Amino acid sequence: MSKALNLPNILALFRIALAPLMLWFFIDRNNPIFSSWHPSWFDYFAGLIFVIASVTDFFDGFIARSWNQMTKLGGILDPLADKMLVLAGFLGLMVINRASAWAVFLILSREFFITGLRVVAVSEGKDVASTMAGKIKTVIQMIAIGFLTMNWPFATEILWLAVILTLYSGYEYTRDYFKN
User: Fold this and answer.
1) According to its UniProt record, which protein family does this protein belong to (predicted)?
2) Is residue 162 over pLDDT 60?
Protein backbone atom coordinates (compact mmCIF):
# COMPACT_ATOMS: atom_id res chain seq x y z
CA MET A 1 0.00 0.00 0.00
CA SER A 2 2.78 2.47 0.85
CA LYS A 3 4.42 1.91 -2.57
CA ALA A 4 1.14 2.76 -4.31
CA LEU A 5 0.75 5.98 -2.31
CA ASN A 6 3.99 7.53 -3.41
CA LEU A 7 4.42 11.27 -4.00
CA PRO A 8 3.44 11.21 -7.70
CA ASN A 9 0.21 9.34 -6.91
CA ILE A 10 -0.58 11.69 -4.03
CA LEU A 11 -0.14 14.63 -6.43
CA ALA A 12 -2.49 12.96 -8.92
CA LEU A 13 -5.07 12.43 -6.16
CA PHE A 14 -4.68 16.08 -5.18
CA ARG A 15 -5.33 17.06 -8.82
CA ILE A 16 -8.45 14.89 -8.83
CA ALA A 17 -9.68 16.77 -5.73
CA LEU A 18 -8.95 20.15 -7.36
CA ALA A 19 -11.10 19.44 -10.46
CA PRO A 20 -14.52 19.67 -8.72
CA LEU A 21 -13.30 22.67 -6.72
CA MET A 22 -12.43 24.47 -9.96
CA LEU A 23 -15.82 23.51 -11.42
CA TRP A 24 -17.51 24.90 -8.31
CA PHE A 25 -15.97 28.35 -8.90
CA PHE A 26 -17.27 28.26 -12.47
CA ILE A 27 -20.84 27.15 -11.84
CA ASP A 28 -21.80 28.34 -8.34
CA ARG A 29 -21.36 32.06 -8.90
CA ASN A 30 -24.82 32.92 -7.53
CA ASN A 31 -24.27 31.23 -4.18
CA PRO A 32 -25.17 33.67 -1.34
CA ILE A 33 -21.80 32.88 0.28
CA PHE A 34 -20.19 34.84 -2.55
CA SER A 35 -22.67 37.75 -2.71
CA SER A 36 -20.00 40.34 -1.92
CA TRP A 37 -17.52 39.03 -4.51
CA HIS A 38 -16.77 40.82 -7.73
CA PRO A 39 -17.40 38.44 -10.68
CA SER A 40 -13.72 38.51 -11.65
CA TRP A 41 -12.79 36.79 -8.37
CA PHE A 42 -14.42 33.58 -9.57
CA ASP A 43 -12.14 33.64 -12.61
CA TYR A 44 -9.08 34.31 -10.48
CA PHE A 45 -9.82 31.45 -8.08
CA ALA A 46 -10.71 29.01 -10.87
CA GLY A 47 -7.54 30.11 -12.69
CA LEU A 48 -5.39 29.68 -9.59
CA ILE A 49 -6.78 26.20 -8.97
CA PHE A 50 -6.17 25.33 -12.61
CA VAL A 51 -2.55 26.54 -12.46
CA ILE A 52 -1.89 24.58 -9.27
CA ALA A 53 -3.42 21.46 -10.82
CA SER A 54 -1.42 21.90 -14.02
CA VAL A 55 1.83 22.29 -12.09
CA THR A 56 1.11 19.12 -10.09
CA ASP A 57 0.50 17.35 -13.43
CA PHE A 58 4.01 18.26 -14.53
CA PHE A 59 5.61 17.31 -11.23
CA ASP A 60 3.85 13.99 -10.70
CA GLY A 61 5.13 12.74 -14.06
CA PHE A 62 8.59 14.22 -13.58
CA ILE A 63 8.98 12.75 -10.09
CA ALA A 64 7.60 9.36 -11.11
CA ARG A 65 10.15 9.08 -13.95
CA SER A 66 13.10 10.66 -12.11
CA TRP A 67 12.67 8.74 -8.87
CA ASN A 68 11.58 5.52 -10.59
CA GLN A 69 8.20 5.64 -8.85
CA MET A 70 6.00 4.70 -11.78
CA THR A 71 3.17 2.40 -10.63
CA LYS A 72 0.09 0.79 -12.16
CA LEU A 73 -2.02 2.96 -9.89
CA GLY A 74 -0.22 6.04 -11.20
CA GLY A 75 -0.85 4.87 -14.74
CA ILE A 76 -4.57 5.03 -13.94
CA LEU A 77 -4.64 8.09 -11.66
CA ASP A 78 -2.60 10.43 -13.87
CA PRO A 79 -4.77 10.22 -17.01
CA LEU A 80 -7.92 10.17 -14.85
CA ALA A 81 -6.82 13.37 -13.12
CA ASP A 82 -6.06 14.97 -16.51
CA LYS A 83 -9.49 14.01 -17.87
CA MET A 84 -11.27 15.25 -14.74
CA LEU A 85 -9.46 18.58 -14.92
CA VAL A 86 -10.26 19.02 -18.62
CA LEU A 87 -13.86 17.93 -18.01
CA ALA A 88 -14.30 20.38 -15.12
CA GLY A 89 -12.66 23.20 -17.04
CA PHE A 90 -14.55 22.86 -20.30
CA LEU A 91 -17.93 22.09 -18.70
CA GLY A 92 -17.59 25.04 -16.33
CA LEU A 93 -16.56 27.34 -19.15
CA MET A 94 -19.49 26.14 -21.23
CA VAL A 95 -21.91 26.84 -18.35
CA ILE A 96 -20.68 30.44 -18.09
CA ASN A 97 -20.88 30.82 -21.89
CA ARG A 98 -17.17 31.12 -22.59
CA ALA A 99 -16.74 27.84 -24.46
CA SER A 100 -18.72 26.62 -27.43
CA ALA A 101 -20.92 23.63 -26.64
CA TRP A 102 -19.82 22.08 -29.95
CA ALA A 103 -16.14 22.47 -29.10
CA VAL A 104 -16.70 20.96 -25.65
CA PHE A 105 -18.76 18.11 -27.12
CA LEU A 106 -16.06 17.27 -29.68
CA ILE A 107 -13.23 17.41 -27.15
CA LEU A 108 -15.01 15.37 -24.49
CA SER A 109 -16.33 12.83 -27.01
CA ARG A 110 -12.79 12.22 -28.22
CA GLU A 111 -11.49 11.94 -24.67
CA PHE A 112 -14.12 9.33 -23.71
CA PHE A 113 -13.66 7.38 -26.94
CA ILE A 114 -9.87 7.25 -26.70
CA THR A 115 -9.99 6.36 -23.00
CA GLY A 116 -12.24 3.42 -23.88
CA LEU A 117 -9.99 2.46 -26.80
CA ARG A 118 -6.94 2.54 -24.52
CA VAL A 119 -8.68 0.25 -22.01
CA VAL A 120 -9.46 -2.22 -24.80
CA ALA A 121 -5.89 -1.97 -26.13
CA VAL A 122 -4.38 -2.65 -22.71
CA SER A 123 -6.69 -5.64 -22.23
CA GLU A 124 -5.39 -6.99 -25.56
CA GLY A 125 -1.77 -6.39 -24.56
CA LYS A 126 -1.27 -3.60 -27.10
CA ASP A 127 1.00 -0.59 -26.57
CA VAL A 128 -0.95 2.57 -25.75
CA ALA A 129 1.87 5.04 -25.28
CA SER A 130 1.04 8.71 -25.70
CA THR A 131 1.88 10.21 -29.05
CA MET A 132 3.50 13.59 -29.56
CA ALA A 133 0.20 14.86 -31.01
CA GLY A 134 -1.54 13.70 -27.82
CA LYS A 135 0.94 15.57 -25.65
CA ILE A 136 0.64 18.74 -27.74
CA LYS A 137 -3.14 18.39 -27.65
CA THR A 138 -3.07 18.30 -23.85
CA VAL A 139 -0.90 21.42 -23.66
CA ILE A 140 -3.13 23.34 -26.08
CA GLN A 141 -6.26 22.23 -24.19
CA MET A 142 -4.70 23.50 -20.96
CA ILE A 143 -3.77 26.81 -22.60
CA ALA A 144 -7.32 27.11 -23.98
CA ILE A 145 -8.82 26.51 -20.55
CA GLY A 146 -6.48 29.10 -19.03
CA PHE A 147 -7.25 31.73 -21.68
CA LEU A 148 -11.00 31.09 -21.52
CA THR A 149 -10.96 31.19 -17.71
CA MET A 150 -9.26 34.57 -17.70
CA ASN A 151 -11.35 35.77 -20.66
CA TRP A 152 -8.21 36.76 -22.58
CA PRO A 153 -8.02 37.67 -26.27
CA PHE A 154 -7.78 34.78 -28.77
CA ALA A 155 -9.24 32.34 -26.24
CA THR A 156 -11.88 31.13 -28.69
CA GLU A 157 -9.32 30.65 -31.46
CA ILE A 158 -7.10 28.62 -29.11
CA LEU A 159 -10.13 26.54 -28.13
CA TRP A 160 -10.79 25.65 -31.78
CA LEU A 161 -7.11 24.88 -32.31
CA ALA A 162 -7.44 22.52 -29.33
CA VAL A 163 -10.46 20.90 -31.01
CA ILE A 164 -8.50 20.32 -34.23
CA LEU A 165 -5.49 18.87 -32.37
CA THR A 166 -7.77 16.79 -30.16
CA LEU A 167 -9.51 15.23 -33.15
CA TYR A 168 -6.21 14.69 -34.97
CA SER A 169 -4.58 12.96 -32.00
CA GLY A 170 -7.71 10.84 -31.65
CA TYR A 171 -7.31 9.82 -35.26
CA GLU A 172 -3.66 8.87 -34.56
CA TYR A 173 -4.61 6.70 -31.56
CA THR A 174 -7.35 4.99 -33.55
CA ARG A 175 -5.09 4.43 -36.56
CA ASP A 176 -2.33 3.01 -34.37
CA TYR A 177 -4.76 0.73 -32.54
CA PHE A 178 -5.94 -0.84 -35.79
CA LYS A 179 -2.38 -1.12 -37.15
CA ASN A 180 -1.27 -3.34 -34.24
Assistant:
1) Belongs to the CDP-alcohol phosphatidyltransferase class-I family.
2) yes
Is the separation of the CB atoms in 42 and 34 below 8 Å? yes
Q: What does the buried/exposed string (b/e) look like for 80-115 if buried means 16 or more CB atoms within 10 Å of the residue's CB?
A: bbbbbbbbbbbebbbebebbbeebbebbbebbeebe
The length of the chain is 180
The pairs formed by 7-10 with CB atoms below 8 angstroms and a separation of 24 or more are 7/60, 7/63, 7/67, 7/69, 8/59, 8/60, 8/61, 8/63, 8/64, 8/67, 8/69, 8/70, 8/71, 8/74, 8/78, 9/60, 9/71, 9/73, 9/74, 9/77
Whole-angstrom Cα Rg for the chain: 17
In tens, the pLDDT along 5-62 reads 899 999 999 999 999 999 999 999 888 988 899 989 999 999 999 999 999 988 988 8
Which DSSP letter does residue 97 get? Answer: T
Beta carbons within 10 angstroms of residue 67's beta carbon: 11
Please name which of 40, 141, 138, 140 lies closest in space to residue 89, comparing C-alpha atoms: 141
